[in-house]
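User: ok so my PI wants both of these folded by tonight, can you help

Assistant: No problem, let's get them done. Here's the first:
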Amino acid sequence: LQMLEQQVVGGEQAQNKDLQEKHKRRKKYADERRLQLLAALQEANEDSSERALLNVYDSIQEEVRAKSKMLEKVQEKLQAAETEIKDLQLEFGLEKMDYLSTIRRQERDLMLCQQLLDQVQSLVRRDCNYSNLEKIRRESVWDEESGCWKIPEPVIQKTHLP
């Protein structure tokens, strides 16, 4: 039963020694490569600052070089951060100016519309419901779906004398 199981587990090539050796070599190579990558990552993550903290230097020149490299890296990071801050401030300033110009333009358009309404209101017949702007504003409803105002239809109210 064990012999049959050994033949079945692993498929047709279970007894192939060359294939087993090839598999072991690939696995060994993959493990070595993984260890190399882990070591490279650890080395990249560990700054020379750890070495500077441990004071493991052969000479003062080596310590100066290590601390200089560390200082250069910090200065590069600082420079990059300052550049990013300036870019963001510039972008914010441009957006702010754009918003302000949009607001000013909309205020001018609103003033034009208000002046037009004031001029035209005197021309509207008194028996029309559009003669009273405040009443129209009260009766108007904002429609969220269409994104516009629903204004009451104009109606002329005829008064009949008895």
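One down. Here's the second:
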Amino acid sequence: QLPSTEETKQVLRLSLTEFSLPKFYLLFGISKVKSAAVIAFRSSYRDRSFSPGSYERETFALTSLETVTEALLEIMEACMRDIPTCKWLDQWTELAQKFAFQYNPSLQPRALVVFGCISKRVSHGQIKQIIRILSKGLESCLKGPDNYNSQVLIEATVIALTKLQPLLNK
């Protein structure tokens, strides 16, 4: 059991209530359901008609990821205030950075957005790496404008740079 103040408990209650609203279903990519529990607790044992291809997956927009990440960061920071030796944010940032700078068409754009949202400091070297990723994405788009992965990578780098720019030294 985590030691928590009344303020932290209030943040957690409000966040849980907010995540339970239908407007947040869209952010989690499940807007076409009446209840999130329907999707979250569905199993092939209870519902034989369910299989990974039996429902239409919604795309998860990077802007939605940005909003969800910021909401989770708020929850984490509230909890961390009550735990002085907590290293959750450092570990999350380290993992996000690892995946942000490692080529993976599925994970890299998402990791870039998360890294941009949760970082509390950034080095010029990290910014250079993100700009290199942006450059590679632009090169790839020039070769074939129908390259969806490159467009997503470009969008992710722009979001990350926008979030990280205020952290840079003047």
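The helical segments are 6-19, 22-27, 36-40, 62-81, 88-100, 108-118, 124-143, 148-164. The chain has one domain: 6-167. Good luck tonight!
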